[in-house]
Amino acid sequence: STSNPGKYGTTVEVLRNVINEICQGLVDLLNCNLDKLSPEILTHYFVYDWDKSAALGSYRSCLRKYGKTPKNTSVINQCLPLAMESCRKSKIRATKVIRVTGYMLENLSKIDSDIKIIHYVRDPRALFLSQRGGKVLPNAVNSSALWANSWCSRLVADYRHVRHLAETVDILQIRYEDLATNFSHAIHKIYKYIKRSIPEELINWFQTNTNATKSNGPMGTTRTNSTATAYRWRHHLPDTVINTISKYCANVLRIYRYAEK
């Protein structure tokens, strides 16, 4: 209940505090204040086990050498300068935050007005397929209706927050499908937005990884045909599910200029 204060205050107050902590953590991350992040973040699976970020390579190696646990702060403190040095040397600091809300973006811009925000959106039908591991049964109409009603209500609310924020903050919106089908145009928009020149190796990376000989799994970034991946839902979702999601997400499809089918 939002009206019955508990040990930590009302539900609304608790949620507000959590959102503020998340936003402050993002600001600290993007400003290389890594020593202000919690040990749980600094030793998270995405940091410790994934090799996605080359910039964190020396930090990961250090943690693996000495062994890490969130409680072993001495090891973290010993290795952290490597990550902070790499961060400060980076010309661009960027992070992808999934399921961020429009309200969180408003808070983020208040904490640090210099942060560039790219609002990255995707067709809800593709999201539904992706969240279910690429496999959806024909009898998934009820579950798809519940999902679409909840998810797309949030997407509409986020859109309103972002549109309101865009009145005072410069925000770039990019659709997943546009990046997948015409990465060159999307990259030019992004780098124009952040006022940087496009590295040649970035174009080469996209050319290689959007038209590769082999994909590297559902969580990977290499695709044999990125356009086919973007529109895979058309061939892997039952028509009944497509129609159900399109019905409940009609406003989202209209807002972000997606075709009904």
UniProtKB/TrEMBL annotation:
Q: Name one GO biological process term.
A: sulfur compound metabolic process
TM segment ranges:
none
Q: Where is the Sulfotransferase domain?
A: 98-253
| GO molecular function terms listed in the Swiss-Prot or TrEMBL record | N-acetylglucosamine 6-O-sulfotransferase activity
Protein name per its UniProtKB record: Sulfotransferase domain-containing protein
At the highest ranks, the source species' classification is: Eukaryota, Metazoa, Spiralia, Lophotrochozoa, Annelida
